[in-house]
Amino acid sequence: xxxxxxxxxxxxxxxxxxxxxxxxxxxxxxxxxxxxxxxxxxxxxxxxxxxxxxxxxxxxxxxxxxxxxxxxxxxxxxxxxxxxxxxxxxxxxxxxxxxxxxxxxxxxxxxxxxxxxxxxxxxxxxxxxxxxxxxxxxxxxxxxxxxxxxxxxxxxxxxxxxxxxxxxxxxxxxxxxxxxxxxxxxxxxxxxxxxxxxxxxxxxxxxxxxxxxxxxxxxxxxxxxxxxxxxxxxxxxxxxxxxxxxxxxxxxxxxxxxxxxxxxxxxxxxxxxxxxxxxxxxxxxxxxxxxxxxxxxxxxxx
Length: 302
Fold this sequence. Notes:
- Helices cover about 45% and strands about 25% of the residues.
- The chain is α/β, with parallel strands linked by helices.
- Strands 3, 4, 5, 6, 7, 10, 11 and 12 form an eight-stranded mixed sheet that branches. A two-stranded antiparallel ribbon has the order 1-2.
- Strand 1 and strand 2 form a beta hairpin.
- Helix 2 packs across helix 3.
């Protein structure tokens, strides 16, 4: 069926006037009349009849009109949905994130994004640095956000988000709470450690190694920051955690902090993408543009 003629039919049925339809669609009256005759010939049904000086729908025309409206209402909806897709307002966004960005950076960001783009679907996956990077490489996530400074992978590009300070925390009644000590003093303490694949674990070990100090003993191993903090609150061990994760506990004096002579641990939070994505994802682009993230670049080689 000629949709152009059907559109003209629907407009004439609405206005009951060839003249008004011609003005509304920027056509001549003869062009409108020709299209009406064309659609009647095509379907073999008379759609209009004379009604005094004007025209009116035949019974067949009255039956066809609601379906014609549905066609063009559907067309408008398709155009609207396409506009949403083009502007990144509709689609799927899959994020893999480590604990601190997931809990302290992403909530406000995601809330703002969902408010501006309510039809987007967002999937969050949490894990340690190795896990979220692997999720990105396996196309299970669209972006990965992690606290990591030693990422060197030819298939990944990164953009810096912010920096985080890290603290050594202990139970509130620990004898070193509030004191400044040399790093080697901590090698004598029972450490609560993140699992293998955690960049915090790697950072801790490299810190001791770079100073020529014996690595601390891993007394207990946890799969998350929260679990380690709870163990510290319960009165045992020492661990290295992001300051943002323990500020409340420190203020409430539920845990304590040890200062290290000449050392302030600051680590970058980066957002990662695959370097050569073949499929465009405008939802991801809109998410990144909201925070002005970019440009992305390959991490410097060692």
